[in-house]
Known about the structure:
Layout: H1 20-31, H2 35-48, E1 53-59, E2 65-70, H3 80-83, H4 109-116, E3 118-124, E4 130-136, E5 139-140, E6 144-145, E7 151-157, H5 164-169, H6 173-190, E8 195-199, E9 204-208, H7 215-227, H8 229-233, E10 235-242, E11 245-252, E12 264-268, E13 271-273, H9 276-285, E14 298-303, E15 309-310, E16 321-322, H10 325-342, H11 349-359, H12 378-388, H13 411-417, E17 424-429, E18 433-438, E19 441-446, H14 447-466, E20 470-480, H15 484-490, H16 492-497, E21 501-504, E22 509-516, H17 524-538, H18 541-546, H19 548-559, H20 569-581, E23 595-599, H21 600-606
Parallel strand pairs: 1-8, 12-14
Antiparallel strand pairs: 1-2, 2-7, 3-4, 3-7, 4-5, 4-6, 8-9, 10-11, 11-14, 12-13, 15-16, 17-18, 18-19, 19-23, 20-22, 21-22
The structure holds adenosine-5'-diphosphate (ADP) and magnesium ion (MG).
Amino acid sequence: MNAPRHNISRPIQGIRRLSDAAANRIAAGEVVERPASAVKELVENAVDAGATRIDVTIGDGGKTLIRVSDNGSGIAQAELALALERHATSKIDGEDLVNIRSFGFRGEALPSIASVARLTLISRQQGGEAWEINVAAGQAAPSRPASRAPGTTVEVRDLFYATPARLKFLRSDRSETQAIGEVMRRLAMAEPGITFTLSDDSRTMFRADAAQGDLFDARLARARTILGADFTENAVAIDADREGLRLEGHIGLPTVSRGAAVAQHIMVNGRPVRDRLLIGALRAAYSDFLSRDRHPMAALFLTCPPDRVDVNVHPAKAEVRFREPGNVRGLIISAIRHTLAQNGHRATSTITENALGAFRSETPAPSGRTWTVPRPSGQAVQAALGAQAPVGFDEQSPGWTSARVETEISEQEAAETTALPLGAARAQLHENYILAQTDDGVVLIDQHAAHERLAFQRLKAQMAENGVARQALLIPEIVELGTDAARVLEQTEALLELGLAIEPFGPGAVAVREVPALLGQPDAAALLRDVADEIADLGSSDAVRARLDAVLSRIACHGSVRSGRRLTGPEMNALLREMEATPHSSTCNHGRPTWVKLSLADLEKLFGRR
Ligand code: ADP
Ligand code: MG
């Protein structure tokens, strides 16, 4: 078939070399897409110049003004004009394109920006004089004396005035400002030792003071500035290596996820990147812990021998190519999963804090009076609670029975269990919350969420061993799936491994014959519809295979005891013990916590005793 003809008229005779100005303007199309990309290039230049302080001022979202001032090495007067020429750089010698240690090396940013804007470059080296050079639409005026402290200021006015077509594509001042803020945050995360500020004519929008201490501490302090205390208080350190690759930094517990992938910072050899492979690996690592619409928070630093990664893929260098992408992905996924497993029992401080806020009584405590309340002895309380402990577990109720312990716990055992992380169960509230006592506080467990997590972990363990055990339905369930039926049937084999036996049943319908034994007697139709949705989300059948876990997580929801099921004391305790023994059990499959803890100190605060 003939390709459609391009709509190019051919008035030019023969081949000719473009002028520098035209070449720069074309390059500018790639290097400076919008004000934020100009800010990125200029701030990177300042970092490359060894600056310890970088101040950025913008006007109208960077459209009318971008000014970047640094206290770096400065440029010699003799080289000012050269800095504005295409392919002129002080950062590489052109021989070695592998061992690149600077942000820049292409020598394109200044000439590109200068070709589409009015640019002033003022610079002074230590011990030298300050000089200034002006360029408008690519035409430079001779340099002239100026005044400033050592360092460099690049001022860009009226970006894209020379290319009106591009000007039209710019977004509102507000969204351009946001994009600039994002660029600053990413670079600030990569360079914790540098002070950054971003202001417009009225206020300072962003400020990150140089972080002190060794690299680890400095990175953590910077993460606090950029991602907030919520993140750092609920983050765990990560440090792993594999075949010459090293991954360091901090990852958020699943309970501090975000609604968009905005709080993910990934640096490769010090360079902040937005790389699909890396973001995909991060997502995959959390897939057991977060629902599809939640995104993990992370500040990760990947170090890789320079000959195994190519940063020169795109002029803006946001993407990279790895020689062994499988290794990189494997390292990220295994390191994160391992770290999260080790921290599976940490409740998040934020959630407890928020809960505390909600707990605080609405009526202000009476002031100036002391209330004395007769305190019942510990034994009396225990007896009272014991008498109220829910009984009458319904044998017919579906779901979780395997964790049952038939014996009553002795007093001795009860004393020991309060020393365990989730403590000794004391009561079930609203038929879904278990209240437990620990040595130093109380724990509230969401029974439904906990069951869901345990079911998932068990299904996973079974699958890893020899496939999920199935149980035949007395009467096969016929489920109408319409156009989804074909897609689900494509996965018949994969679903069988997950304990779900299905077969076609006329056009648009599927028969479910067997379900995972561990689920008891789930609503098979609802289960299959959910699985069909998951498969539709995942897309290709390869993706489904790769993400069997996600399908399994959906399946697990159906086996969990819905709230409303009464548990006996021993059943509750058995559940707590199993949670302690199960990795990742402190969050449900959707990243919500399965339990929260209030320490005695928290309780005292609540009652104004401290
Ligand atoms: P690159 O960064 O790829 O080298 P640029 O066009 O961004 O290319 O900059 C050209 C040169 O100008 C740099 O190599 C550097 O020598 C000099 N330069 C640019 N900005 C600064 C700055 N803020 N401080 C010192 N030198 C700078
Ligand atoms: Mg540069």
